[in-house]
UniProtKB/TrEMBL annotation:
<dbReference type="InterPro" id="IPR036188">
    <property type="entry name" value="FAD/NAD-bd_sf"/>
</dbReference>
<dbReference type="InterPro" id="IPR006076">
    <property type="entry name" value="FAD-dep_OxRdtase"/>
</dbReference>
<feature type="domain" description="FAD dependent oxidoreductase">
    <location>
        <begin position="4"/>
        <end position="323"/>
    </location>
</feature>
<dbReference type="Pfam" id="PF01266">
    <property type="entry name" value="DAO"/>
</dbReference>
<protein>
    <submittedName>
        <fullName>Glycine/D-amino acid oxidase</fullName>
    </submittedName>
</protein>
<dbReference type="GO" id="GO:0005737">
    <property type="term" value="C:cytoplasm"/>
</dbReference>
């Protein structure tokens, strides 16, 4: 059997890469080990503003526009646009923060993202009101995974097993009996065990989330953020998360992170709630907060797409196109994201 591409990993990186290949009529096989990666525990928030400091980031506007277009393209074959038109509202800690927001919105790079309108929500404590982040949205993560996986399965693009590095022969471009032209590794933090790319500085950052059940349905069609993100997944079931931790990287739930989430939620909601799910994942982060893309220096048919950090959705959607252009046409990568910045 022969294929144009192999993709290893079925998180945001792998699935947005798959979209590039589908869109360009390429044949491929995506290996997914079925483990819950960072993408599946993520909140799905698409946000052009760093809410701690009220700043924006490199290519935020282009990334937002690109994601909106990409989700329409994906809707053409999955039948659904998984981008939910619910904006992020930042709950202000005090009057001073509100003033900083107002000042920041005069900056050219922020005026299209920070609304001048302040909004009061009845269902949570927000004595200093909230500021709306324009152009923010939320990906329906569960729907996106279901829709993409169903499509890949139906078209025989998905291999639901662990990719075994021992079966890869990069000199002959074979994986067992499968002959490929190019292979793209998109394994999230597991890339640290990939012997072809293992010296890249990918640092895990562990994040937990909760699903909580309120006694009664709460009417909220927005994402609220003070310490963490809160949004409705179903009537009285809400997502709350996620935490950040670079130190405690064990493979189990950290009770300290759960307490942090419980306290954060109690700060804005004074009623009772029941925790019905606790989950965690590891964000693949990079010190300079830019993804890592590129080609193996010796085996020119091997590529990597990683380091998506805390902005997995925007980064995966936008930069998957850069990786495709590199692999397919040899188009040079911007040096800011090229793996060669670490060599
Ligand atoms: C709690 C939390 C909340 C977050 N919230 C947001 C958010 O709101 N918005 C946002 O944009 N980002 C968010 N993120 C960040 C985002 O989730 C990550 O940037 C993104 O998921 C990384 O995607 P990835 O595909 O590189 O890795 P992953 O999602 O980890 O996917 C890699 C997949 O590859 C599989 N794999 C690895 N090795 C192999 C192999 N040999 N064979 C087969 N499969 C393999 C893994 O099991 C995994 O399923 C959040 C992260 C966390 C932890």
């Amino acid at each position: 059997m022969t294929t144009d591409y192999i993709i290893v990993g079925g998180g945001f990186a792998g699935l947005f890469l798959a979209h590039q290949l589908i869109k360009n009529g390429k044949n491929f096989q995506l290996f997914s080990d079925g483990k819950i990666g960072a993408s599946q525990v993520s909140a799905g928030i698409v946000n052009p503003v760093v809410l701690k400091k009220f700043t924006t980031f490199w290519k935020a506007q282009e990334q937002i526009v690109h994601l909106q277009k990409t989700m329409l393209e994906i809707a053409e074959y999955t039948g659904e646009n998984f981008l939910v038109n619910e904006q992020v509202y930042r709950i202000f800690h005090d009057e001073k923060e509100k003033e900083i927001w107002q000042k920041k919105r005069e900056q050219p790079d922020l005026q299209n993202f920070l609304s001048s309108e302040f909004v009061d929500f009845q269902i949570v404590s927000n004595p200093f009101a909230t500021g709306k982040v324009l152009q923010s949205a939320r990906l329906n993560v569960k729907g996106f995974f279901q829709g993409m996986q169903d499509f890949l399965r139906k078209n025989n693009f998905l291999i639901e097993e662990t990719f075994d590095y021992e079966k890869l022969n990069p000199e002959n471009s074979t994986y067992g009996n499968l002959k490929f032209s190019k292979i793209i590794f998109a394994e999230g933090i597991a890339a640290r065990q990939n012997r072809f790319f293992k010296n890249l500085p990918i640092v895990p950052n562990k994040g937990h989330h909760l699903l909580v059940k309120f006694p009664e349905p709460l009417n909220l069609s927005a994402t609220l953020k003070k310490k963490h993100f809160l949004f409705s997944v179903d009537e009285n079931i809400f997502y709350y998360g996620g935490t950040y931790d670079r130190e405690n990287l064990g493979n189990s739930i950290d009770e300290a992170a759960i307490s942090q989430l419980k306290n954060g939620l109690s700060e804005i909601y004074d009623g009772s709630f029941e925790i019905i799910e606790k989950k965690f994942g590891f964000r693949p982060t990079v010190k300079d907060r830019r993804p890592i893309l590129g080609r193996h220096p010796v085996y020119r048919n091997l590529f990597i797409f990683n380091g998506l950090g805390a902005r997995g959705i925007l980064n995966a959607s936008y930069f998957s196109q850069h990786l495709f252009d590199l692999a397919e046409n040899g188009t040079a990568l911007p040096q800011e994201i090229d793996l060669r910045r670490f060599t």
